[in-house]
Structure formats: C-alpha cells, structure tokens
Amino acid sequence: MKQTVSFLLMMLSLTAFPQAAGKRVIHNSPSNYRVLPAVHAGAGSMKFTGLLGSQPFATNFLYLHAGEIPDKAGIGEHFHHTIEEMYVILDGEAEFTVNGRTSRIKGPALVPCKMGDAHGIYNASGQTLRWLNFAVSTTKGRGDNFDLGDTRVGATIEPIPQFVSGQLKREALRPNNPAYPGNGVLYRRVLGPDIFTTTWDHVDHVVIQAGSVAGPRSLEGMEEVYYVIKGSGTMAMNAADSTPIKADDALYGSLGESIRISNTGKEDLELLVIGIAASKQRDQSRMNANRAAAKKAMALQMDFVVTKENAEAFEKMYSTVYVPAMLVQPGYLHSKLLRLYPDNLAKEIQAEATTYNYQIQISFDTEENRRKWVASPQHLKAWPAATALAKEYKWRGYDVLGENNNSQ
C-alpha cells in the first residue's frame, strides 16, 4: 500500500509542478498535423494537432488545439455540457455558426462558444483556414460533446454576426496599460470573465514593439496560456528561468509566477494571452450556508519561521497561490494567514515567546477531504511555494467542536 501511495504522489508531482520554461514551449508545426475526417459530423476532412493538455495546469484549462481546414470542409455543429471553447481564426475566413445563426468571420479573429451553445465552422472561402481552439472545463480534465449531425453547408449567411466575436486589430490596441507594464507595449482585453461561466478569466491581445519589454507581471490566482502570433523574443518565468519564443509557439505560466516578455527581434512581437482563474468568486451566502450545515469540521494550524526579506513574498503567496489552490478543493471551508505581534506588543500582553512568526490556519469539513487536498495537484504547487519561503515549519491538527462568527 505504501509503495502504491508513493507512486501515485510521484505521478501527481510529475504533472503538477510547472516545467522549466524551455520545456513548456510547443511549436505549432503543420508537419505534426494528422488528418481527421468528418469532425463532429462535419463536411470533408481537416488537419489537426493538440498543443497543450490539462496535465501541467492547476486550473481547469483543458486543451489548446491547432490545425487547418481546407476549402469545402469544416467542423460539424455540436455543443458541450461541461466545457467552454474559443475558436481563433489565424488566417482565412470561415462561415461560423452559433445557435443556428451563421456569419462570415475573417481572421485574425476569435469566437467564444459558451457552455451549451451549439457551434460549427464551414470553410467556403476557396482557401485554407488556419485555426486554434482553446477550452476550459468545469471539472479538471473532463470534456464532452454532443453532435447535431449538421455540416452547415449552404447555411443562410447574416451580414452582422448574432453572436459574440472579436477582431485582433492593431489599431484597437492602447499603450501605457497596467496589465502589461512597459514602454512600447500595446494591449487590449478582448474578452473578460463576464463572457464565460467557467473559470475562464480573460482573452488579451498584446503587441510588444522591437526592443521593448512587457512586465514583470504576477499571475495572482490564475494561470495563462500564450500563443505567439508573430515575431520573436524571450519569456522569463520568475526572472531567472527564460526561454526563446517565436511565431506559432504556445506555452504557459503557472500560479504565482512572475512573467516578463521581451521582444528581441526586429518586428513586433504579437501574442494572444488566455487567462484561467483558479476559482470564480464564491457566493458568500452559499458559503455561509454550507458552513452552517456542516455536521463536523477539522482545522490545521501550520507555524512558519519566515525571515524579514521573505515576509512580503510569503504574505503574497498566501493570497495568490495558497488560497486559489484550496478554493477548488471539495470540503474546503475557510483559512487565515496570521502574523505574530511585534515584540513590544507581544511583551505588553505577556505573550508566550516563540520563534515562529507566521501561521496559516485551514479548515475542511472532514479530515478525509483535507487529505484529498494534500494529495491534489494544487497542493503539490501550493505547499512548496509556502515552505520555500520559510526557514522552519510545523503543524498541528484539531477537531472543531464549536465555532462562532459574529460577522455572518
């Protein structure tokens, strides 16, 4: 049994910890495409490959697909119960259908497909269409589809799309933005979280001019997927870990990482940036009701010795890495980050002397669910993020026998 548990934890760690920057880069090369006929019962055949899957992510990012759709071929109309997609036309024009309404969308452009929205693509342009498809699920690693058996060939075309879409136009970009700080950086948030019902947070269009740098920017409570539309440069994760990037590369940034993107080429470095939050903001009344209904609970207290130079990073780690990682766990109730009183105040209240200066308190409905959290991919990112900033740590577990919260 011990060997089985050790093997399981080892496999979780292989998929949960972010890879070195260079190993995250996947190049979108047509030589890797395979031919797929009648995709979702669509017309003709298309070429396809998977660039990124769900394994390296703590969030519910599901996949990034890429490929080509030749003339008189497409993706048949279908819908999903548990995932949301976004199709990106890199080059070409498509007849795009959402919920039975069809319009021509010319690239570079994107079309989000909300959960439950029927959607399909048909290429009648006479030229090959280059496309991407991003997806975020409601449950990590889980996808689904239901095909409607409609190729959309000969569909009635409406001149104005009756569904959400976005054009990737340079003239719509603006400088001097806080999201991607730096001179020579142009940016536009094409889609925000209100468009989606999953934890999909944003879709950004970014252009970094030659010799310019975007960042650093911190991925607080979210992960990002980057696709390089054109140009070349470097991307650094946490300052020291840097990798070259070029047109048609895909890569990702993990929870809590600091990202810096530099244009080292002679032309614009253009990127599409997809953000996925660790968790949507929970409804407070529902959380309170769940707490009140809980028949039992447990609490864990973790004490840390954190040096002065790591204090700010430790406090930020709690809100940007630890809490988002716990929010998606079954049975998680609440947590607190505590900092010891300064020496003068501790002496004034005659507090017990201790070398530990920080404490994280977490509470789950059951010890069983807390142990599931410990074995989760999210914990295998959050716990090392905490201990790496501490000189020393220990913990204690408690059964919760009573609780009062006067703020509820």
CATH level 4 superfamily of the largest domain: Jelly Rolls
Strands of the widest sheet, in order across it, are: 2-3-4-11-6-9-13
Count the E strands: 26
Provide the CATH architecture of the largest domain. Sandwich
Mean pLDDT: 89
The top-level CATH class of the largest domain is Mainly Beta
Multimeric organization: single chain
User: Strand percentage, roughly?
Assistant: 35-45%
CATH topology of the largest domain: Jelly Rolls
Query: How large, in whole angstroms, is the Cα Rg?
Result: 24 Å
Low-confidence spans: 1-16, 282-295
Look at the helices and sheets and give the structural class: alpha+beta
What is the number of helices?
7
C-alpha termini separation: 44 Å
Portion of residues in helices?
Answer: 10-25%
Q: Largest sheet, if any?
A: 7 strands, antiparallel
So what's the overall shape? globular
Number of domains: 2
